[in-house]
Design brief:
Elements (H helix, E strand, L loop, with lengths): L3 E2 L2 H21 L6 E7 L3 H17 L2 E7 L5 H13 L5 E4 L9 H7 L11 H8 L8 H12 L8 E5 L6 H9 L6 E5 L6 H5 L4 E4 L17 E4 L3 E3 L2 E3 L4 H4 L5 E2 L6 H21 L1
Parallel strand pairs: 1-11, 2-3, 2-4, 5-6, 5-7, 7-8, 8-11
Antiparallel strand pairs: 9-10
Helix pairs in contact: 1-10, 2-10, 6-7, 6-10
Bound molecules: guanine (GUN).
Length: about 280
Amino acid sequence: MPAILLDGKKLAQDIRTELAEEVAQFTGSGSPVPTLAAVLVGSDPASEVYVRNKRRDCEKVGIRSELFDLPESTSQAELLERIDELNQNTEVHGILVQLPLPAQIDPECVLQAISPLKDVDAFHPENVGLLVQARPRYLPCTPHAVQQLLVRNELPISGQHVVIVGRSDIVGKPLSVMLAQRGLDATVTLCHSRTQDLPAVTRLADILVVAIGRPNFVTADMVKPGATVIDVGINRTDAGLVGDVDFSGTREVAGHITPVPGGVGPLTRVMLLVNTLSAARRLES
Ligand code: GUN
């Protein structure tokens, strides 16, 4: 029997409906409209699409978004100056600098310059530290999306063996920390390019999360029958958008699986809205 699909699009819609209500209550009680500043440097086509979609999502729930569309030639000093202005601007609650940045700009330096209180991506070292210490200020968007997909579909996490493929700062590393924490209580294995006999490890997973950015990398033979497979990959190929998991083969083995598109992606964007409302609450209280 093919796997049950985990519908991220539908779940994202449900959460947006909840959020729209929360935003309306927030502004209805006299607070200002939560505002996200989105900074885009250069004209990477994928980044342009991501930022456009994020701004569209804001509109749907009553969050204001402002776009700062800077030229490819922007220097690091110019970008830091712009971030400083946004840090000082009391009308702005969340700041998002879309990655990747042009080569002349050091992303680490830029992400550290964003006020940790306005860091709705949760990339600032202070926010990463708080997350590791189990007292998060904001949860990073993609790991939060994966967690919500599991929790809201009532898939057990406690005591389960979660195998994560990919140790990026944005997905694998923070997700491994979150799922292992008290309350969620998973047993986590974090795999990467040097992992020996990766298929033997992934076959141990009750929940397999794949975030390495390689199209169709995980195949059916790497999955334990009945496992939950969460595909974080978004790869643009000649065949269109595909995930990191070979969907057609793997769905015949897995118990639950996310499609690409329509799985983790839409939920990741919603988590940015959750953090922007949370930032507004924090800054306006
Ligand atoms: N580029 C790819 N993913 C992300 C993300 O989650 N946040 C930002 N700011 N840029 C990205």
